[in-house]
Amino acid sequence: MALATARGSGFRILVTGASGFIGRACLAPLRREGFQVDAISAHPQPMQEGVSWHCCDLLDAQASVALLEAIRPTHLLHAAWLAKPGAFWTHPDNFRWVTASLELFRAFYRAGGRRAVGVGTCAEYAWVTKPCNERTTPLHPATLYGRCKLAMSLLLEAAAQEAGGSAAWARLFLPYGPGEPAGRLIPAVIEGLLQGHRVACTHGTQKRDFIYINDVAEALVELACSTATGSFNVATGQGTSLHEVITCIANQLRGMENIDFGARPMPAGDPEYVVADTSHITSVTGWHPKHTLEQGIQLTIAATRDRLLAKEATQ
Amino acid sequence: MALATARGSGFRILVTGASGFIGRACLAPLRREGFQVDAISAHPQPMQEGVSWHCCDLLDAQASVALLEAIRPTHLLHAAWLAKPGAFWTHPDNFRWVTASLELFRAFYRAGGRRAVGVGTCAEYAWVTKPCNERTTPLHPATLYGRCKLAMSLLLEAAAQEAGGSAAWARLFLPYGPGEPAGRLIPAVIEGLLQGHRVACTHGTQKRDFIYINDVAEALVELACSTATGSFNVATGQGTSLHEVITCIANQLRGMENIDFGARPMPAGDPEYVVADTSHITSVTGWHPKHTLEQGIQLTIAATRDRLLAKEATQ
To answer: pLDDT tens-digit profile of B169-212?
Structure first.
């Protein structure tokens, strides 16, 4: 009986942003751990076995407090945030998400919640040229988004402290995979090459810590099951240049001749190096990512191909 | 004409918490710099030359936004916060002050404000055993109050970034002097000895960075006049043990025989060492504290004596 010994057995978890890139990927692994899963989305979702969907605008404090009091989850995975691609770096709605999320976390603990996991970002760190470490890398975010997320992590800790509850904060580096919003680097290159277009890129010297979405989801589930508190990098610990990532995609799609490296300028303010030290989460929870970049890209290409074919079939 | 060259000339500053320990001390030096001074208090205040008082509950967002739009200050010194002595370390109203202060800062910039100074705390740092430095000391507050204040500093920076405005954050270490709320160490020892009581103390080995209130006020005025951004320690850079501070008071009052060192236990969780590195504010603004501990204590004793005599006279 796998479920009888599963760590989520007997617990009820509420997942926010559950129709988004991060939240959606967590639903199946949470079920596998035995959690009863309640999922929040701003818009109606198709039915899904083992998941209770709730429509709720989390920016409406009264609505989210009422929902929490009705559900009374033991666990909360708060993946919802401003979801305007590109605009999120500077958008004033980041402030609304800070205050709404603070209300949500406090209402969760007031309604008997025990363990919350918040979703943060590598942009909470100062841009430095060595792997970001939770204890030693300066927390001096350069962006409005990074500042609001870091403030949120502190407010979550304070809310947990107020209630005698438990909380962890996951600083995601660069998740990619099926469901990643269109327009970001990896989906844009894959779609472009699959459709036979030329793809204009920067020189691609910037190094990033890309992590496959299912590995992110496993890390978030691990943190939900754990009692460890504080902030945790969720990443691979490997720096990969954008050039390497694009080359990996192009090699799998036999499309190198369609890549124009250096055809686009480096975006202003783009840091050269954003890579994690992952020793903390690994030593505390035992979690480690399971997919190599090649495997993750292969799965992402397959999913993108299926999606494009399905789209074609309905046209 | 001192005022014609004064740096605040032509500017209008709104001071919150202006009837409190920190805010009140800033009013006269702001006037001396030539600022037109508007002061907010939750309760009616006696008239004061050169200061326009406004009664406003800052936790009422609509009221504070309306006041800002009516006054349209160029500068804001936000010294108001939860003012429940002792309780502020853990009180849930810290959360209300975070959200209300965020509203206040954003409304300030929306109403044309240019430069805001927020008041933070040494409790934003991890408790470490060397001087706290703004760039290198880990920002891992241990308390609910410290977490909320650090979150606030990030939200102020984000609000300034949103508006293209300017902001600085003053991390106050241990201000003391006339007006310090009763019950804290220095007023308690002074009052006790002045009234001939015995005073029970800990062994007093803990080192702290005590700073005279007028030096704090000068630093805040300096930051208001500056364009420098980020966080700044406001302190002396000198670690003084509580034993030394109490001895300084007792020597001036010839009351050493009434001090019982070691009669009280160390409070649980009380850090051994809370001292600032002040090189940042000094190098950026030229500010440095002017009062030695002996001078500050002498002025505080004199003010306390006057207050007790006045109280006696009215009884």
So the answer is: 999 999 999 999 988 999 999 999 999 999 999 999 999 999 99
The verdict on A59 touching B (C-beta cutoff 8 Å) is no
* Residue for token pair 């962006």: A143
Nearest-CA neighbor of A157 among A172, A147, A169, A145?
Answer: A169
A135/B contact by beta carbon, under 8 A: yes
* Residues contacting A15, CB < 8 A, separation 6+: A23, A26, A27, A30, A37, A38, A39, A40, A77, A79
Report pLDDT for B49: 86
* Residue B154 touches partner A, C-beta closer than 8 Å: yes
CA-to-CA distance for A189 and A194, rounded, in angstroms? 8
Place of tokens 């496959």: A212
Q: Is B127 in contact with B274 (CB distance < 8 Å)?
A: yes
Half-sphere exposure of B195 (CA within 13 A, CB side): 15
User: How far is Cα A158 from Cα B147, in angstroms, rounded to an integer?
Assistant: 6
Buried b (16+ CB within 10 A) or exposed e, B99-119: bbbbbbbbbbbebebbbbbbb
CB-based contacts of A272, cutoff 8 Å, min separation 6: A127, A129, A205, A206, A207
Contacts by B39-42 with C-beta closer than 8 Å and gap 24+? B39/B14, B39/B15, B40/B14, B40/B15, B40/B16, B40/B67, B40/B80, B41/B17
Helix, strand, or coil (residue B81): coil
Stated as kind and residue range, the H or E segment containing B33 is: none
User: Quick check: B19 pLDDT over 90?
Assistant: yes
B169: helix, strand or coil: strand
All residues of chain B having their beta carbon less than 8 Å from the beta carbon of residue A95 are 102, 106, 155, 158-159, 162
SS3 label, residue B205:
coil
| In the block, residue with structure tokens 């007792």 | B250
Mean of pLDDT values over A54-81: 96
- Averaged pLDDT of chain B: 95
Considering chain A, what percentage of its residues have pLDDT values greater than 70? 98
- CB count, 10 Å around CB of A78? 24
Split at pLDDT 50, 70, 90, the class of A5 is: low
Cβ atoms of B90 and B147 within 8 Å: the answer is: no
Does B147 contact A at CB distance below 8 Å? yes
| Spatial distance between the Cα atoms of B200 and B261, rounded to a whole number of angstroms | 6
Q: Is A307 exposed, middle or buried (0-12, 13-18, 19+ CB in 10 A)?
A: middle
Interface test with A, best of B135, B147, B162, B231 (most A CBs within 10 A): B147
